[in-house]
TrEMBL record:
Main subcellular localisation: cytoplasm
Subcellular location: Cytoplasm
GO MF, one example: ATP binding
Annotated ranges, domain AAA+ ATPase: 25-364
Binding-site residues, ATP: G33, N34, N35, G36, V37, G38, K39, T40
Swiss-Prot/TrEMBL GO biological process terms: DNA replication; DNA synthesis involved in DNA repair; double-strand break repair; SOS response
Transmembrane segments: none
Family: Belongs to the RecF family.
Protein's UniProt name: DNA replication and repair protein RecF
Function: The RecF protein is involved in DNA metabolism; it is required for DNA replication and normal SOS inducibility. RecF binds preferentially to single-stranded, linear DNA. It also seems to bind ATP.
Source organism of the structure: Phaeocystidibacter marisrubri
Length: 373
């Protein structure tokens, strides 16, 4: 199975890094240092190269180093077809420049999926604690990395939804109502929404067994967890949903029914994980979910995604850490990047991983140095 490997990374005024150039192992790369020194920022730069944006902050300009006019994130990926260079630059007040092999993209969406990537981070707990939009974004992000048509449908659905909402506000403001005009957008939402729902349903059917297996491997005891896809379209057609909610939409001036209301349900012992799960159980659940994402992308793209593990060993007991290390040693993964505040713990983990590895130390000045093996 092929895998894209990030060999080099160059940062200029990205977050806290004035200028950094790094060369990576094709297997395991670990970054150690205190909290707040910028270890996670290196992983976020790698996320930029694969997904065209930050994992943590969607406002591009806020990722430029404080007080500086621009940023650059550049990387060289080794693939089965040779070396691909990816270049991302942003000047304050300007449009983001994103190139592959020195060619600009007409649409950034065309880059998504070329270098499959999975990030596992403490912020993934938001998937459990936050509202449904966070879980939909996760679902959409995974499917979009493997399905261009899905991404096109999603962009078109969101555009039609925005236009329909604007029309509802216009009707309210001008005290008028035109069913025929509204139905134009309904048709667009139905066409795209039905396909999105079908793709999400298929995705969940594929993800669920992988996720449950990953959880049972990591968990120290037999814990009954479940994952399910909640959608209005599970009960009735998209057309029925829109028709039945029309009076409500008229009053509220926005579209209250459709696949933009979908959600994922996470359960432990048949109760919401958010309410009954311990921190360790919640962390195990999100890690298992992300490892299922990894396996899903590996299966549908035929490529092992790059795996970014941001501070994932914290709040896990020794047995759960050991289980994750065992998975790495089973050669299930391609290139891995790890951050940890505990240098000793990382060194111990890296020693137990039989793959080739490099450990970097990050200090408070934003300087990264490779430690001797």
């Amino acid at each position: 199975m092929s895998t894209a490997v990030l060999k080099k990374l160059h940062l200029v005024d990205f977050k806290n890094y004035p200028d950094a150039e790094l060369s990576f192992s094709s297997k395991v790369n670990a970054f150690v240092g205190n909290n707040g020194v910028g270890k996670t920022n290196v992983l976020d730069a790698i996320h930029y190269l694969a997904v065209t944006k930050s994992y943590f902050n969607p406002v591009d300009s806020q990722n430029i180093r404080h007080g500086k006019p621009f940023m650059v994130v550049e990387g060289a990926f080794e693939t089965e077809n040779g070396t691909d260079t990816v270049y991302c630059a942003l000047q304050r007040g300007q449009k983001k420049v994103f190139k592959r092999n020195q060619k600009d993209y007409e649409r950034l969406a065309d880059h998504i999926g070329l270098f499959p990537l999975v990030m596992i981070s403490p912020s993934d707990r938001d998937l459990i604690l936050e509202g449904s939009e966070t879980r939909r974004k996760f679902m959409d992000g995974v499917i979009s990395q493997s399905d261009k048509l899905y991404l096109d449908d999603l962009l078109a659905y969101n555009k039609a939804l925005s236009q329909r909402n604007s029309l509802l506000k216009y009707f309210a403001k001008n005290r008028k109502w035109e069913e025929a005009t509204l139905e134009i957008y309904d048709e667009q939402l139905i066409e795209r929404g039905v396909r999105i729902n079908e793709r999400r349903t298929l995705f969940m059917d594929q993800m669920k067994p992988i996720m449950l297996e990953a959880y049972s491997k990591i968990a120290s005891e037999n814990e009954d967890v479940n994952l399910s896809y909640a959608s209005q379209l599970n009960e009735k057609s998209m057309k029925e949903c829109l028709l039945e909610s029309r009076d409500k939409d008229k009053i509220l001036q926005y579209t209250t029914a459709g696949i933009h209301k979908d959600d994922l349900k996470f359960e432990l012992n048949e109760y919401p994980l958010k309410k009954v799960g311990s921190q360790g159980q919640q962390k195990t659940f999100t890690i298992a979910l992300k490892l299922a994402q990894f396996e899903f992308l590996k299966h549908v793209t035929g490529r092992k995604p790059i795996l970014l593990l941001d501070d994932i060993f914290d709040k896990l007991d020794e047995q759960r850490v050991e289980a994750i290390v065992s998975m790495v040693n089973d050669h299930q993964f391609g290139q891995i990047f790890i951050t940890d505040t505990h240098a000793d713990r990382t060194n111990e983990i890296v020693k137990r991983i039989v793959e080739e590895s490099v450990v970097f130390e990050v200090n408070s000045e934003g300087v990264i140095k490779e430690l001797e093996a």
